[in-house]
Amino acid sequence: MSSYHFLNLSQHQGIWTIRLNRPEVYNALNAGLIHEIRYVAERAKISDEVRVLVITGEGKAFCSGADLKSGTSDSDLGAVLRATYNPMILALRNLDKPVIGAINGPAAGAGCSLALACDYLVAKDSAYFAELFVQIGLTLDAGSTAFLMQSLGYHKAFELASTAKKFSAQEAKEMGLVADVVAEEQWESRLQEIVMDFARRPTLAIALMKRELQKAYQPDLATVLEMEAHAQREAGYSKDFQEGVKSFLEKRPPKFMGK
């Protein structure tokens, strides 16, 4: 397999496994990692050898979200989404093979979006999820608007988005987001069992199911991603976002003004 800078990719019996490999920042997403995830998904789509794509994280976390410490050269967050996150999410959802999210630790912010972009989620019992955008004065992005509404409906989606509350793997299972919660000592064996089971399933039928289930939800994901980009552009220029990032870096509570 080709080498990557920000992820590890392995192949075994038709199973490609992405391991986000920035454990020193809890696998936070920078432009390079986002590009590599998208590239692997696009490669998997055109490969007849791939039966299943698995996404997990190295170290203690699945993905802590956007790497705020790395900053961005573009103050227009809508443009950033259109150039990076949105193509990655669409590549995963348009992949005509099952994508298994192996949630080995915290999945927060855009990391939560990445988890929810997967088709089937398996989580360690110690993992948790959190839509942290509001804590830095931003709206949902990377598809969470669609994913929460598809799975939970308006009121629960609003609750999780507006409060940024953490919810455990078990709570996520009870909500219907996670299919299986696994203890640490059984993690590797149970995950292997689930992934191998999917690798033996009829890939074409699953691809058709995946496509039709997404079509059954309106509006379509591309429309929602564009809507998120438009809203995030506005939020990204706000004083609250400036304060949110500053307070995060200074490790203090933010003082939002609603502007």
From TrEMBL:
One GO term of the biological process aspect: fatty acid beta-oxidation
Domain of life, source organism: Bacteria
Pfam families from the UniProt entry: ECH_1 (PF00378)
Name the UniProt record assigns to this protein: 2-(1,2-epoxy-1,2-dihydrophenyl)acetyl-CoA isomerase
InterPro entries: ClpP/crotonase-like_dom_sf, Enoyl-CoA_hyd/isom_CS, Enoyl-CoA_hydra/iso, Enoyl-CoA_hydra_C
Keyword Metal-binding: no
MF-aspect GO terms: isomerase activity; lyase activity
Protein family per UniProt: Belongs to the enoyl-CoA hydratase/isomerase family.
Species this chain originates from: Aquirufa rosea
Annotated Gene3D superfamilies: 2-enoyl-CoA Hydratase, Chain A, domain 1, Lyase 2-enoyl-coa Hydratase, Chain A, domain 2
UniProt KW keywords: Isomerase, Lyase
